[in-house]
Design goal:
By secondary structure, the protein is an alpha+beta fold. The protein folds into 2 domains: 246 residues, q2cbj1_9rhob like domain (Jelly Rolls, Sandwich), CATH 2.60.120; 214 residues, no CATH class. 19% of the residues lie in helices and 23% in strands. The chain binds 2-oxoglutaric acid and fe (ii) ion. InterPro entries: Oxoglu/Fe-dep_dioxygenase_dom, P4HA-like, Pro_4_hyd_alph, Pro_4_hyd_alph_FE2OG_OXY.
Length: 499
Amino acid sequence: MAPKDSKKKAGSAKASTTPNVSSKSKDEGKPFPKTSISFSIVMAVIAFLGGVLTPPLRHMLRERGDDVNISVSSPYIPLPFPLPKRVPCTSSNLDNFLHAAPVSGLHVVCVEPMYLGGDGEDHLFPQWDDLREQNKILDQFDSVRLTSYKNSYSAPVKNVVVLRGEDGEDVGRRLPISWSKMKNLLYTELGLLHEGSKQQPWGLYTTSGERIIGELDEVTDGDGFGSSKHIMSSIVASGIIVVVQGGNWLWPGVREGFLRTIELATPSNAAISGSRNITIETLSLKPLVLSIEGFLSEDECDYIAKKAEPTLKYSGVSLKDADVGKAASNWRTSQSTFLPAQGDPVLLDIEHRTASLTRVPRDHQEYVQVLRYGHTEKYDSHHDYFDPDHYRSDPNTLNLIEHGKKNRFATVFWYLTDVEDGGHTIFPRAGGLRELSYTDCSSGLKVKPQKGKVIIFYSLDASGAMDPSSLHGACPVGEGNVKWAANKWIWNAPMGYVR
Ligand SMILES: O=C(O)CCC(=O)C(=O)O
Ligand SMILES: [Fe+2]
């Protein structure tokens, strides 16, 4: 069974010559022959904004669904938001994204801009750290060197290809590389699948989880936001890109115990109310389980439990075909309630923070489901996804999940209290183990409840497929203890709860 969903009620639920980057070249074959002045001005303005508007804010602006049209005192505003912060393709940067074993559907690609030299050869630009230099490079590159790490596998053999722009009318000149050409190459290099009846469209991201473009996103004409030029500039500016077959960003686990610090935007209604850094620890790679301490404040935890208390009821589960007619208490003896965030600044703030944490838009979230477990209460091991094969005689669930295309993608699980004895969340299949039974709490990864901590576990893998290893349960709570917790379920597509 999967835990019951509130939506159902609503009905549906490298260079051999070194170019002088700052010189104003006029000769053919030099890296910077002609510069489009208007594009450079715009890029300079954008570079400035790039320093002011940090990634989380951009993320948040998108999150908020606001029109990301930052007005600047320039007549040219072709790129309405700043280009990503560059993460150059060095081995230490790659170490934060590659894995010792393949991770299906999670691809990492190094993108290095190149130019056609006077010798008729392709040359890499030298490394840069100045945004002005970057703007010139973005205006001048006519080929890219791509190093692909399919399935983010740090295999000793890597795949390197050079993608060149078409020959231009002038001899020795090439046209800029189009996004469609780049996209075709990614299909072959990475073995990408097209969107289909069971497959969400893939997404292409910066290393901080900012979406650059998705399979079905429209490409606009001209040089502006969403144009081929803008997409290619963003890709090159990124340095390293991450392509996720399943469409939705997930934080690469890298290895057990890996620590990643990310910027978290905290605001909900204030445009610049600040950001803070948080650390994500990898608890397990398969299933992918991440832990973040202090995500929620003590006051928030207390507030949520208090708000939920009056409407708690003994929890239901979505019964699989084979279990129809059985009582939910066979598996789950806790109480629960869904809390809509509308009109509640505390819950709204956490929803925005959760979107920033996961880099999945807020409208993929369900309302939070708050849980209370008393002594002996528990929830046997289960999956949070809905396997269509188990709901063949339940048209409501099949509609909700669009027969398998749509599903719960991740759970951000909130611990609202410390629990001294028992109450662990158990992942009996972590590390390739096999569960002894759905009620066994002796083997597997056991996460101890800690007030304000959250864990993220992914029910779907990076390819978008259900991950059977995400099996998990709640161990019985010990005597004299009460466990308060909550499920924030995040779908692989918008849910339509939140505007
Ligand atoms: O309480 C826990 O630790 C896990 C609960 C859970 O998996 C659920 O409610 O779906
Ligand atoms: Fe669960």
